[in-house]
């Protein structure tokens, strides 16, 4: 049942990432108490939490203890099972429908649900043995991507690319960890990420789609405006609203897309909550995704969104020259800096994102070159 939460109530956050820390900071600024459940003593959430519980694992006892002491709970993706989420929902307010609980923990359910809603997803097949893989390849073809079906298992995000039968030994090793999804590899012109918010009143706020660009380090940068046709943008927005409403979303949902050269739009994944791309919105937009997601979960109204600048590119600071970044930090008011020094880190060890703003993507790239902030 949908609820509204008022300042003074306690919001419970499970997980210890930077995004959880920023969600905790935002909730506190809105007048809420913040409780935190983590498995690592040194974590960035601690400095923003009213109280924090440290546990060896997210087991039944720890989750029960935590849920009974908070008014609403939010959790990171990939750390809890469907049964864990069902337990939380029985003890406190969890802003996830039954379908979302299942989809956020199981890739097979996610893809089957999207397929049933006539959303285009890459062809896929459930595989548990190597013979399953060889049979699935006959219809899916090479190359293909092997992914863990369950998101909470160790190595769930370590996907295996299959280019030929020579990659079967790696596939068999992956299958030893549990059931997997074999998914067709789609040659795409653009990889995009889009976040949608929805509160219990049914109000919706859709953030502009960001282009996701892979960096040599294995990390990613995010930029807008995305260089696709208006019809593609409209289709991504339509799909996001369709999925959010069909799942009775309350909070935030991030959709990952692939756009082909023929402007065909595939949904590759759904994710509750916020990822690191949400840091892109700090300073570059009138409402950060952290504040927007907090407002949506608590039942607060969602304001209109305004872009602060026509274009922006966000880089992880780990891929930048930190000394050059800090020079710009002391000089500029037009860039956005989401920089953090988690408790336990050396003072000089920063994490976060630097968002370069400008009139266009080319203008942003020129500023990056002139300031020499890249390594």
TrEMBL record:
GO terms for biological process: purine nucleotide biosynthetic process. InterPro entries: ATP-grasp, ATP-grasp_carboxylate-amine, ATP_grasp_subdomain_1, PurT/PurK_preATP-grasp. GO terms for cellular component: cytosol. Pfam families: ATP-grasp, RS_preATP-grasp-like. Pathway: Purine metabolism. GO terms for molecular function: ATP binding; ligase activity; metal ion binding. Signal peptide: none annotated. Keywords: ATP-binding, Ligase, Nucleotide-binding, Purine biosynthesis. The keyword Nucleotide-binding applies. It comes from the Bacteria. SUPFAM superfamilies: Glutathione synthetase ATP-binding domain-like. This is Carboxylate--amine ligase.
């Amino acid at each position: 049942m949908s609820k509204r939460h008022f300042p003074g109530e306690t919001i419970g956050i499970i997980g210890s990432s930077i995004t959880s820390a920023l969600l905790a900071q935002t909730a506190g600024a809105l007048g809420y108490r913040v409780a935190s459940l983590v498995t690592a003593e040194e974590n960035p959430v601690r400095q923003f939490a009213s109280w924090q519980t440290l546990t060896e694992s997210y087991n039944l006892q720890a989750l029960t203890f935590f849920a009974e002491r908070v008014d609403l709970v939010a959790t990171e993706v990939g750390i809890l099972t469907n049964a864990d989420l069902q337990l939380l929902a029985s003890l406190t307010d969890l802003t996830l429908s039954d379908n979302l609980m299942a989809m956020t923990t199981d890739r097979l359910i996610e893809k089957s649900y999207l397929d049933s809603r006539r959303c285009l997803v890459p062809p896929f097949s459930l595989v548990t043995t190597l013979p399953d893989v060889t049979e699935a390849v006959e219809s899916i073809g090479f190359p293909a991507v092997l992914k863990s079906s369950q998101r909470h298992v160790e190595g769930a995000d370590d996907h295996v690319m299959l280019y030929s039968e020579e990659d079967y030994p790696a596939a068999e090793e992956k299958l030893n960890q549990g059931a997997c999804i074999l998914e067709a590899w789609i040659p795409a012109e653009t990889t995009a990420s889009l976040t949608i918010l929805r509160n219990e009143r049914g109000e919706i706020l859709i953030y502009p789609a960001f282009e996701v660009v892979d960096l040599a380090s294995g990390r990613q940068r995010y930029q807008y405006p995305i260089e696709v046709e208006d019809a593609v943008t409209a289709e991504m927005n339509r799909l996001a609203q369709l999925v959010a409403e069909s799942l009775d979303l309350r909070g935030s949902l991030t959709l990952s897309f692939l756009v082909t050269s023929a402007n065909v739009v595939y949904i590759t994944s759904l994710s509750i909550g916020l990822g690191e791309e949400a840091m892109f919105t700090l300073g570059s937009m009138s409402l950060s995704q952290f504040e927007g997601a907090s407002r949506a979960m608590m039942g607060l109204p969602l304001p209109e969104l305004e872009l602060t600048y026509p274009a922006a590119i966000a880089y992880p600071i780990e891929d930048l020259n930190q000394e050059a970044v800090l020079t710009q930090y002391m000089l500029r008011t037009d860039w956005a800096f989401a920089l953090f020094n988690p408790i336990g880190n050396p003072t000089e060890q920063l994490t976060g994102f630097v968002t370069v703003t400008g009139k266009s993507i080319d203008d942003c790239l020129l500023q990056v070159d002139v300031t020499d902030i890249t390594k």
